[in-house]
Amino acid sequence: MKITKIDLLYSDPVEDNWRPSFCRIYTDNGIYGDGEVALSYGGAKEAAFAEMKELAHLLIGMNPLEHEIVWQKLYRNSFFGKNAGPVIFGAISAFDVALWDIKGKYYHAPLWELLGGKQRDHLKAYASQLQMGWGESRRPAATPQDYANNTKIALEKGFKTVKINFLTFDEQGKQIPWQRQTAFLSPNYLNLAEERIKAVRNVLEENGELILENHALTDKLSAVQYGKMFSKYNILYFEEPVKPDPDLLSYVHQETGLNIASGERMYSRWDFKRTFYQNSIQVAQPDICTAGGVTEVKKICDMADTNEIGVQIHVAGSNLATSVSLNLEAAIPNFVIHEYNINTEMSKMLSLTKYDYEPENGVFTVPDRPGIGNEISDYAFKHSRVVTIK
Length: 390
Known about the structure:
The structure is a single chain. The protein folds into two domains: 3-108 and 376-389, Enolase-like, N-terminal domain (Enolase-like, domain 1, 2-Layer Sandwich); 113-365, Alpha-Beta Barrel (TIM Barrel), CATH 3.20.20.120. It is 37% helix and 16% strand. It contains 13 helices and 13 strands. Strands 4, 5, 6, 7, 8, 9, 10, 11 and 12 form a nine-stranded mixed sheet that branches. A four-stranded antiparallel sheet has the order 3-2-1-13. The chain starts with a strand and ends with a strand.
């Protein structure tokens, strides 16, 4: 079996100006596979699509079942691939996911079976980024009551765990500049964040779980100040308190005593290596669609397991990213929880894929369809810039 051509898709803007990029790899026996780059936001949308165009020709004529051979070719034949960031590894990720999709369809097996089987049939999920709104309320949360209301909506949908950045917006719902979140936080912002956390914790009560999100906007001084103050609110883990530097992450963990999560801005096993060896984090968060695809992220998960570090795959893309993440999470022993981002259920985002995987009472059922369990929709092809590489 050989790869004959590749369609690259750069979707029209969906809500909040997200623009996912996809690939579809075709073979000479009629099987095709789909993949996604998880850079539909954050200033790298055009670059992700452009990088796929740069690398796609390397795949033509190769055997799609030889994912390790293809991965090494992409990695070693891109000059900037060594120690690369999200753009190059994002393109490699999309192609790699598509190859695993082809392999699953070829063997009539879901991805989790190719990876050795299911460790579990169901995956607990959390409601992610409630500061952005939840359900029908898609506006920045400003008052403590806004945070409480969004939490109530998530609980009504069956979630038991929520993740919130309490320092994204000020009292008026305007974004707090990063300059106000470094060195030491002002009493005003600390008090504002605490009132919000209190409101959320009151809704969650004792059995609800809270993940504290920071998007690496605090530095080690403000992160420690923040973490120490709020450790009394029973935080499940503190996500990205600082940039993905193992020394800084270790410092925050040691000073606050909180479990630390990081990894969405690490892009290969080499990025994670020192973080694992230093036990800088307790939860690893690689993104399958930016950290090298299934081939690389499975290795990252295995490395984490040797250090007894849990894994929560970062998911912030379409339902294609959701389905491949659910498959891998089902197969690993060190799964912690699945991220369910509100942007996944935007109507236009849902229209980009053939199948819609949603949690029931905060729990996902592992997909059983062959391959990664999802496909790019006809709607996506009609509402995207499409480039074909032969």
